[in-house]
Amino acid sequence: KFPYAGPQPIEAQQETIAGKAVVVVGAH
To answer: What's the superkingdom here (predicted)?
Structure first.
């Protein structure tokens, strides 16, 4: 799910979720 290994910072998780949300909205 993440392009890097190791513990995932909360900031990185939020950015990934936000990025996916933008892609989903853009698809619609």
So the answer is: Eukaryota
The answer to whether 15 and 3 have CB atoms below 8 angstroms apart is: no
| Number of residues that this document lists for the chain | 28
Exposed (0-12), middle (13-18) or buried (19+): which is 16, by Cβ within 10 Å?
A: middle
11 touches 18 (CB < 8 A): no
SS3 assignment, position 4: coil
pTM: 0.33
